[in-house]
Amino acid sequence: MIALTSDRKRTVARTWTATILMMVLASDLVSAADPLYKSNSGQNSAYTPVAEYKKYSEHCAMKQVHLLQTPGARQPAPNPSASMQATLAKVINKTHYARSEMAFLANYTYNLGDEGSLIPFGASQLYDAGSTIGKRYCSGPLGKVFCGTPFLRSSSSTRLRESAGNWSEGFLSSQYTKTPIQTSVIISETSDSRNTLSNNCPNLVSIVPDAQDEWRAVWTPAVVQRLQSEESYGLNSTDVLNFAYLCAFDSYAINATSPFCGLFKSYEWAYIEYDGDLDKYYGNAYPGAPLSRSQGAGYVNELLARLTSDRSYVDKDTTQFYADVGYNNLMLAVFGILGFFQDDPLSTTLPCPMRSFVSSKMVPFAGRMVVESLDCSGAFEGGYWGKIFKGRTDFVRVMVNDQAMDLTSLCGQSKVTERGTYCTRSAFVEALAKANAVATKEFEGCGFGK
Fold first, then answer.
1. CATH number of the domain where residue 173 is located
2. How many structural domains comprise the chain?
3. First to last CA, the chain
4. What sign does the CA torsion over 351, 213, 248, 236 have?
5. Pairwise CA distance, residues 143 & 438, whole Å
6. N vs C: which end of the chain shows fewer Cβ within 10 Å?
7. Is residue 380 part of a domain?
8. Is residue 90 packed enough to be buried (19+ CB in 10 Å), middle (13-18) or exposed (0-12)?
């Protein structure tokens, strides 16, 4: 575990699009007080709560907690690392830079790694995540009785195992009893394993495979022109995005804002964000990648089993707290089954400022989804008279990065309350089972054979 210490008509259309981008994307910009790379780097953004967590009703008691957690910040993976270094080869170690913001490149040496390993900042993210969850659901003697020892799983990659370990350390820090939490199950990532925490669909394809290229053609030429206003380095759109990735990864590595971030204007971070949105929407999410939901069917089957008390794969069936550490593409697949963030196909030239699909708010480093199973008295729905005349009802609430999700589309209007954020457990289980049956059927198209 790491010690705590990403023809003319067409030309005219693009020109018009470029002129209104700043106005349309204005709502996506974040406060200047928050480093933009942290919140506008797509999946390479750092976790921040989307909303302030609202505690469940005082008329309800927690029955189960189901956490799906993504790993923390990491090194670049092999292919992105190679691409970044190819970009750097064009611009580093020059004797003169006409633009002052590029002067640091004269002495820059790439040392960010290329294995996708968890870095200290990512380890601290998972420690904080475990501590937050522990304090929220398991603090105090009664909380300890409810939580017991969490059932903790991870996929077998080093980064996920280390993330799980740091999460458990953070969770333990919030508890009265300091009994070490071991990862209960580590699931192999070999091709023949049944890994419900990993995403795997060989036949997964995008309905718009060139989405990012089309978007980059809209906005990156201006950046290339600016950076090469005095001298040419042979930069292209890929290089522009690599500079953005370097900004994020270098900043996380040094725990400060990287000089690479100074290569961009503040408004350009909204464009970078949208590039990441297109990547995830058309690469790993429904409906942009039609088979993507199938990758979450295994996890959802387990969630349904836990909610309905068929938990034969757990040593002790009294477990009430489940924590799974898996990949962000798995989380996107689960979102697809739940019906979350399913915007109409995203435009490749003009972002919609009202879109719900924003990858930095969905699957950032250390992102999380929590399914809360609640036992509520009649007073929850019916007030005083409900308390007297109505029995208890089980409800489910789903939190994505602390935002309570609207379950109306999944459960139906008659089965939800509190603006759609509470669904009766029976309706939730029934609706989710039907949705998962569709995803399971879609899995047949992934190409694994019989």
1. 3.40.50.1240
2. 1
3. 38
4. negative
5. 37
6. C
7. no
8. middle
3-state secondary structure 285-321: CCCCCCCHHHHHHHHHHHHHHHHCCCCCCCCCCCCCE
The phi and psi torsions of 193 (rounded to 5 degrees) equal: -85, 155
Q: Encoding tokens for residue 126?
A: 């998972």
What sign does the dihedral 230-233-237-240 (CA atoms) show? negative
Give the domain range for residue 334.
Answer: 36-53+69-75+113-367+432-445
| 293, 443 Cβ separation under 8 angstroms | no
Residue 448 pLDDT: 80
Taking the chain (450 residues) in runs of 10, the rounded mean pLDDT of each run is: 48 43 43 74 98 93 95 97 98 95 97 96 98 88 71 90 94 75 73 74 95 98 97 97 98 97 97 98 97 96 89 60 95 98 97 97 99 89 52 93 98 96 97 97 84
Q: Which residues contact 347 (CB under 8 A, 6 or more apart)?
A: none
In a domain, 23, yes or no: no
